[in-house]
Amino acid sequence: xxxxxxxxxxxxxxxxxxxxxxxxxxxxxxxxxxxxxxxxxxxxxxxxxxxxxxxxxxxxxxxxxxxxxxxxxxxxxxxxxxxxxxxxxxxxxxxxxxxxxxxxxxxxxxxxxxxxxxxxxxxxxxxxxxxxxxxxxxxxxxxxxxxxxxxxxxxxxxxxxxxxxxxxxxxxxxxxxxxxxxxxxxxxxxxxxxxxxxxxxxxxxxxxxxxxxxxxxxxxxxxxxxxxxxxxxxxxxxxxxxxxxxxxxxxxxxxxxxxxxxxxxxxxxxxxxxxxxxxxxxxxxxxxxxxxxxxxxxxxxxxxxxxxxxxxxxxxxxxxxxxxxxxxxxxxxxxxxxxxxxxxxxxxxxxxxxxxxxxxxxxxxxxxxxxxxxxxxxxxxxxxxxxxxxxxx
Length: 393
Ligand SMILES: *Cc1c(COP(=O)(O)O)cnc(C)c1O
Known about the structure:
- The protein folds into two domains: 59-264, TIM Barrel (Alpha-Beta Barrel), CATH 3.20.20; 270-388, Lyase, Ornithine Decarboxylase, Chain A, domain 1 (Beta Barrel).
- The protein has ten helices and 18 strands.
- The chain has helices at residues 10-20, 32-45, 61-70, 79-87, 104-112, 123-132, 162-174, 194-214, 238-253, 266-269; strands spanning 27-30, 49-54, 73-76, 95-97, 117-120, 137-141, 150-152, 178-183, 188-190, 220-222, 259-262, 273-283, 292-296, 316-318, 327-333, 342-352, 360-363, 385-388.
- The strands form three sheets. Strands 1, 12, 13, 14, 15, 16, 17 and 18 form an eight-stranded mixed β-sheet that branches.
- α6 (123-132) links the parallel β5 and β6.
- Pyridoxal-5'-phosphate (PLP) is lined by residues 54, 56-57, 75, 98, 185, 188, 224-227, 263-267.
């Protein structure tokens, strides 16, 4: 049986149960104190880095406000996210436009609002930036291969080959922009710390080549996100990541580190949220079938999109978990009329055999990429609601 206390303390769990008992399911309950604790831990482990929270992971205004008050900056991917962040009074010089896929008119919108920090990975985008955000700081995103070791890879679609990055930096200068640095993202929930080593080495190679051949001195490395949240599959501690990454940086850059930026999403908010679901129905496909199908009121379209390919395996707790409770394998599925809406079939969760329809199932570590990733109303099911649990911090 999963040990719930490996993920959340008894105190926090009991406070959560009290707070949530009358809430209608499905919903997500966020404990802001956990976000605060995660932020402090990251800041203390990477004291030399500036943190840009990746807003897409959880754009709830309470989460953004808390992080803003802690001193975080923000990585924003669309004008809609920008509006949310600015509406909270966050200054534009704490915001970067980190999406390499953008319309020229959206670049103009960011510029008009005061944002001066833009990511790019293509010539066309760079020309759009030069035309609509003159003299702004540019960082070029490098392609990194991470499809096998990250649980939620971000490869292929973003970034460019180092040769192209080199050209883009020169082109940025020639277009009157400020070539500021390089970025990469080693893949979300990246459980192989060694992936940062290779990526950092690439940045070093480009820093040196650009300085020697073009007299361009880049100032910044944006190391993206990728740090883990605690799910079913084991990951190293954040402290291990910090130690190793520091070593890679010093190996390549010595004591004079460039300005380092981190863009965490999942690791800051993942374990702050619990998704509460109710069992809608339990059935077997024939009388002798070994596995029960457990259908929930939450699925791929209203919060659990990251179960695609069973990529993210949430720790699941039920209201019937007791030491010694008899458990059996189940197939877990969502409520919609789409057969893609199966959560876990290959990976067999074991749930108590006396779990009944109408009872609750809790997905732990569901604070990242859940509420922000839900359909507007597929099959009429509304997007999942978020509640912020009061917790004096
Ligand atoms: C999604 C994203 C992040 C956050 O990644 P996590 O793995 O959730 O920490 C950071 N930077 C960029 C550019 C992203 O697209």
